[in-house]
TrEMBL record:
Residues 160-175, 188-200 have a biased composition (Polar residues). Residues 461-471 have a biased composition (Low complexity). This is Uncharacterized protein. Residues 214-231, 429-454 have a biased composition (Basic and acidic residues). Residues 157-200, 214-235, 428-509 are annotated as: Disordered. It comes from Symbiodinium necroappetens. The lineage of its organism: Eukaryota, Sar, Alveolata, Dinophyceae, Suessiales.
Length: 509
């Protein structure tokens, strides 16, 4: 009898040990997967650095055609501006929030990397958005501390790791000014290709057909963009797609803001959201609309996972969205080496989702488009994750009025009745003036610089007339990108720098 009891106890211990061993194996597999993803991301970043290195060498080779005298003149002229923009003793840039690598605990959070604008959805800024953000910065520059840095990240001014750019109150105020200025500039703007009206009272089938008709009205030239290079098929410089709703970019200093197309296509945006609600879409902050785009395998690492997709059009023979899942029954073979995804020939397991009906998937997992024939519009609704708590109240009010079901969150700025009234006016297309004291910059000359030092009433230096460009040198136009502050001991500088001048300076750096 005792032998039987001992045998039963031993069997129980073996089962317990086997269970623990299986748990350890599962945990090891999770760490293995996360480690592989980490390696892929490192390789992806390495590939991007190599591409940047190649581009730098090309610029260097192009500069080889300059004469020594011409190069010396440009460098000498650039030196005062560079000194003003780098007030510290060290010439090395200080690390910013946009340049960090963080190692997190646990198998579910191993890497979290952020390399400036490379992870801001790879979005090419609309010129008017850049102009608006620079105008607000210029108007509010009197409140910026003297030692603030402005780092150029992917051709965009981005705030350095300074006191004013890190303070919640400062960023909340900046976001409010951004949203107010954007609303005033864009309130009455609309694309001629926007939907004729907001559609209500239609069935889901009728509304879907109306949206398809409206999408077909938009010419390809209006769709073209260089944004989101990571999803474009290899060798293609442009793709046909639009982003509606919130976007996080360097041009808005990392604060979520509505895209320009949200204003230009506000009726189309509202109709898509109405149709999405009828289909059963959940929370979302943004919409990606693509036309005939066969996306490469990629991850949307900066978004929250849950995404919804549906399609419109007459495409055939494919067009499904493939989503990686180790439990999947379908396979997708990589046709090229993709950094962070895998080498050419690697086979991914997962599921193909037919987007003729609404489908939900995890956007942080590898996904792509199965090749197809015909016209295919893919409409993806998702929620941003980066800096969502900093979203200005006025911007949220606008998207709610358009029909977005925004995720709940504890925001830094609370929505007021005035925000809802202004948002309603914008949706209806009524022009709204900006706040008193802020005016659009003149088109014929740059805005005068605001002075910061001491209690002086001296006006900023007036810009001089542009001088003729010498052969072999860039033309000196006058529009300025960003206000530059001087120390009290520095002499007055009369000439301001143009966009082309700044590009030349960045190339020289």
């Amino acid at each position: 009898m005792q032998h039987l009891q001992h045998a039963a106890m031993a069997a129980g211990e073996h089962v317990s040990l086997l269970g623990k061993l299986n748990e350890r194996i599962k945990l090891s597999e999770e760490y293995k997967t996360k480690t592989e993803n980490m390696i892929h991301r490192i390789l992806e970043q390495h590939a991007m650095w190599r591409a940047q290195h190649t581009a730098i060498l090309e610029v260097y080779a192009a500069l080889g055609g300059w004469t020594k005298d011409a190069a010396q003149q440009v460098v000498a002229a650039a030196l005062p501006s560079l000194q003003r923009s780098c007030p510290s003793d060290s010439s090395a840039p200080r690390p910013t929030r946009s340049e960090q690598i963080v190692v997190l605990d646990g198998p579910n959070q191993v890497w979290d990397r952020d390399f400036g604008n490379s992870e801001f959805q790879d979005q090419v800024p609309h010129p008017i958005e850049r102009e608006m953000s620079q105008q607000v910065i210029a108007d509010e520059s009197v409140d910026v501390l003297e030692d603030d840095d402005v780092m150029l990240v992917a051709e965009e001014p981005y705030p350095g790791n300074t006191q004013s750019s890190q303070q919640p109150d400062s960023r909340s105020s900046l976001g409010r000014q951004f949203a107010r200025s954007q609303l005033a500039r864009m309130s009455a703007r609309s694309s001629e290709f926007d939907s004729p009206s907001f559609c209500s009272g239609m069935s889901a089938d009728e509304l879907g057909q109306q949206i398809l008709t409206d999408l077909d009205r938009i010419p390809d030239k209006e769709w073209e963009t260089r944004s989101r290079e990571n999803v474009r098929p290899a060798g293609e410089a442009k793709s046909l797609q639009k982003t509606l709703g919130f976007f996080v970019g360097a041009r808005w200093h990392g604060i979520p803001m509505p895209t320009t197309d949200t204003f230009n296509f506000r009726r189309l945006t509202g109709n898509i959201l109405l149709y999405a609600r009828q289909l059963g879409v959940g929370e979302a902050t943004s919409i990606q609309v693509t036309k005939n785009l066969c996306t490469r395998p990629h991850r949307d690492v900066n978004n929250r996972g849950p995404s919804w997709i549906f399609g419109l059009g007459d495409w055939t023979e494919g067009g499904e969205t493939f989503v990686q899942d180790d439990r999947g029954t379908e396979e997708h073979e990589l046709q090229e080496h993709i950094p962070g995804i895998g080498p050419k020939g690697k086979v991914l397991r997962g599921f193909k989702k037919d987007i003729h009906t609404l489908q939900q998937f995890d956007g942080t997992k590898i996904h792509c488009t199965v090749p197809f024939k015909g016209t295919r519009y893919a409409i993806i609704l998702y929620a941003i994750n980066r800096s969502y708590h900093e979203t200005p109240a006025l911007a949220r009010a606008l998207l709610v009025r358009l029909g977005f079901n925004l995720p709940l969150h504890e925001f830094e700025a609370n929505m007021q009745a005035e925000d809802e009234e202004l948002a309603g006016a914008v949706v209806e297309g009524r022009p709204e003036a900006d706040e008193p004291g802020r005016h659009p910059p003149p088109t014929d000359r740059p805005r005068p610089l605001k002075r910061l030092h001491e209690d002086t009433e001296e006006a900023a230096a007036e810009p001089q007339a542009p001088s003729a460009a010498k052969p072999g040198q860039p033309a000196m136009a006058l529009p300025i990108l960003q206000p530059v502050f001087r120390s009290p001991n520095e002499p007055e500088v009369q000439e301001l720098w143009s966009d082309s001048d700044m590009e030349a300076l960045k190339d020289l750096k």
